[in-house]
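Per your request, structure below.
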C-alpha cells in the first residue's frame, strides 16, 4: 500500500505547477497588470476599433418577446462580473470584523482612522483642483480608493524586507478604504432609484439574514437567492448592483457547526474505524470504508465556516478571471488625446495629486501625528520607513479607481483624462514605494517608540 500521495504525469507537469501559480499571491497582480497592458496596446493598435467595439455587443435575457435584461458586454462586466469581486471583498470585510484586524476597538482604531484619512485627503485635494468645474468635480471619489491586490503584490515581491506586521497593517486600513469606496458608490454614484425594485431586493436580503439566523448553511441557497432575489432587483433599481454583492456576502455564515476540539476528536475516531475496517486486496474501497470517508468529508465541511469556504474557492476566480477581464474591458485607453485636451481642465492633476500626495498625507501624516501625540503605537517590527513606503504605495489606485471613473463621467474625454491620470499616479506611486522599501535602512532603530 502506498503511504504517500501518488503523482501522475499530469499532476507533476500540469496540475501542481498550475496550483503553485494560482496560490502565489504575487501572480494575481501580475496577471492583472498584464491584462491592463494588453488592453492599452490593443486600444492603440490597428485592431483598436474591433477591440473597443467588442465590448459594445449586447447580451439580453428574455422570455418569448419580452426582454428583461438587455445590456452591452461592458455593462455586464461592470455590473455583473465585477460583483463577484465585490462579493469576495464583502466576505473579507466580514471575516476581518468577526475575527480579524477590525474585530475589536483597540485593533481597529488605527486602521479605521488611517483608512478614513487616506480617503478624505485625496478627495479634498481633488476638490481644490476641480471645485469650480461642475462636470469635473463629479470625479472626487476617484482618488479615494487604493488597489489592495497591486500593493500586496509589490509587498510580497519585496519578501523579508517587509515584515508580516506591515502587510497586515496595510490590509487592515486597505479594507477600511474599500468600505469607504463601497459607501461612496452606494450613496453618491447612484442614478434614479426604483423604490419597488430596491424594496424587493432588501426583502430578499432580510430573508438571507433570517436564513443565517436559523442555521441555513448551504452556499447554493445563498447563491440562488442572492443572485435572483437581491442582485437582479438592485440592478433594476438604479442602486449599483455591486452593493448587493457586498450585502449578500455579509449574510454568509461565519461560524462552524463543530468546535476544533470536537472536530479533532471525531476525525481521530473515524481514523480508528477506517484502520480497523475490513478492506479489499485490490485498489477499490469497501462500502464500510466509503461510508467512513464520507463521514470524514462531511465533518470537515462542518468544521469550516461557509464564509471561508467561499472566500477560499472564489479568490482564484477573482484574481485570474474576473479582474483580468475587467482590466481588458476598462483599461483600454486610446492615447489620441493631445496635451491641450488632457490639461483642458484639472481632472488629471486632481487625480494624480490626490492619489500620490493625498494618500501620503492621509496615511503617513495622520499616523505620524498620532504617534507624536502618543495616542497609538506602530505594529511590531514596523519602522517609519515601512510606514513611508506603504503610504506611497497606497497611491496605486487601479481597479476601484477605474471602476468609479465609469460611474463618475459620461464624457469620453473626461474618462480618458481620468484613466491616464490613474495610470500615471499608479506608476509613480508603485515605483517610488518599491524603491523606498527595497533600500537598506541606515539604522534598524528607525522606529518611533511611543
Amino acid at each position: 500500500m502506498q503511504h504517500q500521495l501518488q503523482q501522475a504525469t499530469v499532476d507533476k507537469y500540469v496540475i501542481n505547477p498550475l496550483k503553485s501559480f494560482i496560490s502565489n499571491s504575487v501572480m494575481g497582480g501580475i496577471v492583472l497588470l498584464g491584462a491592463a497592458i494588453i488592453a492599452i496596446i490593443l486600444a492603440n493598435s490597428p485592431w483598436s476599433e474591433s477591440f473597443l467595439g467588442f465590448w459594445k455587443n449586447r447580451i439580453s435575457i428574455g422570455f418569448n418577446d419580452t426582454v428583461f435584461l438587455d445590456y452591452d458586454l461592458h455593462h455586464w462586466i461592470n455590473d455583473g462580473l465585477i460583483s463577484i469581486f465585490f462579493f469576495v471583498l464583502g466576505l473579507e470585510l466580514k471575516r476581518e470584523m468577526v475575527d480579524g484586524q477590525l474585530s475589536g476597538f483597540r485593533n481597529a482604531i488605527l486602521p479605521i482612522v488611517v483608512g478614513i484619512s487616506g480617503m478624505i485627503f485625496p478627495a479634498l485635494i481633488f476638490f481644490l483642483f476641480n471645485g469650480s468645474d461642475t462636470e469635473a468635480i463629479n470625479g472626487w471619489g476617484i482618488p479615494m480608493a487604493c488597489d489592495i491586490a497591486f500593493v500586496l503584490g509589490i509587498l510580497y515581491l519585496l519578501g523579508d524586507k517587509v515584515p508580516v506586521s506591515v502587510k497586515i497593517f496595510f490590509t487592515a486600513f486597505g479594507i477600511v478604504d474599500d468600505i469607504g469606496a463601497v459607501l461612496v458608490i452606494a450613496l453618491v454614484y447612484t442614478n434614479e432609484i426604483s423604490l419597488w425594485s430596491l424594496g424587493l431586493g432588501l426583502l430578499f436580503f432580510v430573508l438571507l439574514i433570517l436564513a443565517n439566523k436559523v442555521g441555513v448553511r448551504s452556499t447554493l441557497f445563498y447563491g440562488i437567492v442572492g443572485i435572483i432575489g437581491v442582485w437582479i432587483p438592485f440592478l433594476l433599481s438604479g442602486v449599483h448592483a455591486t452593493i448587493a454583492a457586498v450585502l449578500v456576502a455579509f449574510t454568509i455564515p461565519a461560524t462552524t457547526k463543530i468546535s476544533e476540539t470536537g472536530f479533532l476528536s471525531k476525525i481521530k475516531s473515524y481514523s480508528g474505524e477506517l484502520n480497523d475496517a475490513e478492506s479489499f486486496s485490490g485498489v477499490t474501497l469497501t462500502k464500510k470504508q466509503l461510508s467512513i470517508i464520507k463521514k470524514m468529508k462531511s465533518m470537515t465541511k462542518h468544521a469550516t465556516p461557509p464564509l471561508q469556504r467561499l472566500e477560499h474557492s472564489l479568490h482564484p476566480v477573482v484574481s485570474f478571471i474576473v479582474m483580468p477581464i475587467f482590466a481588458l474591458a476598462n483599461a483600454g485607453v486610446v492615447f489620441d488625446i493631445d496635451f491641450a485636451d488632457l490639461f483642458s481642465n484639472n481632472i488629471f492633476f486632481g487625480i494624480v495629486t490626490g492619489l500620490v500626495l493625498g494618500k501620503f498625507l492621509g496615511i503617513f501624516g495622520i499616523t505620524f501625528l498620532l504617534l507624536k501625540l502618543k495616542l497609538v503605537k506602530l505594529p511590531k517590527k514596523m519602522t517609519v520607513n515601512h510606514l513611508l513606503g506603504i503610504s506611497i504605495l497606497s497611491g496605486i489606485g487601479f481597479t476601484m479607481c477605474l471602476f468609479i471613473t465609469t460611474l463618475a463621467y459620461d464624457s469620453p474625454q473626461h474618462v480618458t483624462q481620468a484613466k491616464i491620470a490613474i495610470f500615471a499616479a499608479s506608476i509613480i506611486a508603485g515605483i517610488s514605494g518599491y524603491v523606498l522599501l527595497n533600500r537598506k535602512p541606515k539604522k534598524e532603530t528607525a522606529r518611533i517608540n511611543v
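The chain has a mean pLDDT of 85.

Regards,
D.
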